[in-house]
């Protein structure tokens, strides 16, 4: 390698941020944090499994323009530790085997198609696309060199992660290999408090289920929409909603 080429190589910068927000709303953010936290806990005793959220992945050395930041990625065979970006050539040329994306209202079909093409081209083994607002999950697993759609995700068990997916009545649930559900930090705290109260003989109301949370969120959104429509009607009549309130 000539001195000029070495100088050019050293000059290449791989940004650690793409300038985009991690999430567009609280629901998407909660799902990203829940997925990353539970997957990290699943592999807590495996020093050779790296789990990250919203981390830029560069698959090709010398091409900082080729990159994606999956909402959550799992790289099996790579050591734990902090990283500013996932530079594949510094990771034994090992691409993340599993990636998760959580949809938000701001995602476009073109954007999601480009993400799929990227993951398909650069070696992802399992790709899961979660739509928490609609209570829907799509999944793909690599077969014969390409990502192939999973026909029925309800009851599907990830070959790589051992995680089971359940989709029923608009509620999405993921489960550890031993059957425990993925929980948010709030649910974990409630479960621990309930277990402690049970040990002390104190009754405690069970934490809300994922379905109950989804229904409560849907009711809150519907109430906000009704209030907005009522305010528009009042303004059309020349009335100030704030004065009436």
Q: How many H/I helical runs?
A: 6
Q: End-to-end span in angstroms?
A: 74 Å
Please state the overall shape, judged from the principal axes of the Cα atoms. Answer: globular
Q: What structural class results from the helix and strand content? A: alpha+beta
CATH topology of the largest domain: tt1808, chain A
Order of helices and strands: HHEEEEEHEEEEEHHH
Oligomer: single chain
What is the gyration radius calculated from CA atoms? 22 Å
Classify the beta-strand content into a percent band: 15-25%
What is the count of structural domains? 2
| CATH-defined superfamily of the largest domain | tt1808, chain A
What composes the largest sheet?
6 strands, mixed
Helix content: 25-40%
Widest sheet, order of strands: 1-3-5-6-7-8
- Top CATH class of the largest domain: Alpha Beta
């Amino acid at each position: 390698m000539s001195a000029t080429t070495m100088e050019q190589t050293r000059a290449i910068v791989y940004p650690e941020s793409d300038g985009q927000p991690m999430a567009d709303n609280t629901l998407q953010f909660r799902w990203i944090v829940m997925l990353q936290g539970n997957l990290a806990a699943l592999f807590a005793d495996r020093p050779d499994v790296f789990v990250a959220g919203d981390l830029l992945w560069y698959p090709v050395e010398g091409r900082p323009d080729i990159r994606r930041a999956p909402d959550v990625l799992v790289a099996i065979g790579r050591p734990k530790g902090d990283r500013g970006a996932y530079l594949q050539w510094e990771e034994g040329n090992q691409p993340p085997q599993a990636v998760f994306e959580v949809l938000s209202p701001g995602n476009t079909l073109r954007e999601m198609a480009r993400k799929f093409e990227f993951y398909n081209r650069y070696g992802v083994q399992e790709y899961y696309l979660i739509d928490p607002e609609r209570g829907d999950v799509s999944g793909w697993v690599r077969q014969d060199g390409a990502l192939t759609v999973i026909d029925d995700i309800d009851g599907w068990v990830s070959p790589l992660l051992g995680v089971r997916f359940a989709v029923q009545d608009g509620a999405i649930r993921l489960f550890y290999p031993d059957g425990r559900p993925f929980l948010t930090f709030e649910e974990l705290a409630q479960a621990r408090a309930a277990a402690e109260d049970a040990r002390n003989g104190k009754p405690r109301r069970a934490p809300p289920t994922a379905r109950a949370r989804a229904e409560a969120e849907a009711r809150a959104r519907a109430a906000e929409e009704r209030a907005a429509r009522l305010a528009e009607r009042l303004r059309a009549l020349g009335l100030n909603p704030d004065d009436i309130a």
